[in-house]
Amino acid sequence: MHAPPPDTETAPKLRRTLRVAVVEDDKTLRLFLEKLIQKKDHGFEFAGAFESAEAAVSLLKAKPDVIVVDLELPGVSGIEMIKQMAPRMPTTAFIVLTIHDDPNKVFAALRAGAHGYMLKSARPAEIAVGIRQASEGGAPLSQDIARLLIQSFQEPAKPAEKKEVPGLTPREGQILERLAKGMAPKEVAHDLSLSYETVRDYLKAVYQKLHVRSRTEAVIKYLEHTQ
Questions:
Q1: Which whole-number Å values give the CA distances from 140 to 26, 79, 97, 110, 156, in the listed order?
Q2: Which residue, 1, 128, 164, 227, has most beta carbons within 10 Å?
Q3: Domain CATH code at residue 120
Q4: Structure confidence at residue 17 (pLDDT)
Q5: Would the pLDDT of 79 be above 70?
Q6: Domain enclosing residue 46, as ranges
Q7: How far is it, in rounded angstroms, from Cα 84 to Cα 34?
Q8: SS3 18
Q9: Of all helices (H) and strands (E), which one includes residue 28?
Q10: Do residues 130 and 122 lie in contact, with contact meaning Cβ atoms separated by under 8 Å?
Q11: Which has the higher per-residue pLDDT, 104 or 154?
């Protein structure tokens, strides 16, 4: 009797062997990543380790499936290396592995062409999974980095700084601001708890300082400085 064909839906899929290279200036970490990549159960093939972006130029011809890159490299930085090499290696995934959890660095790396951003504090198994994810079109991020990015989007925008007209006192600016919103001088006086005569005196001083002769001209000058 012939054995029945395997169930294609339940049979485990064979993983493609990935050629993985490392660009890391720290010798200890470089050796650690080399051993990680060479572990048979990960399905990786070690494609070389380099201490600088300049030394890794040979990868342009080798075109490994994944390159793990440190940000702080001697000479050309990791971000600059990715920016230069990624367009010439469209089938290679670049993963940043760094100590930096600065959102600005994360965005800069992703804009440069990085496919993932992981922290060196990640467990070896997480790094291995990230390498596999990046090669399959994913965007691996350390949990701390993902949380940081979410927080950066959730932070409320800072209110724009209020611009002032040079030469005017804060009170004169308050009066002009209200006039620019369409208030009449009497309404301004009521809103600021001032007498109408006091508002008129302030306006005379404003006219002199702005070298204008009417309320309309004063408002126009105010808008020119604050818009």
A1: 22, 17, 11, 11, 26
A2: 128
A3: 3.40.50.2300
A4: 92
A5: yes
A6: 19-150
A7: 24
A8: strand
A9: helix 27-38
A10: yes
A11: 104
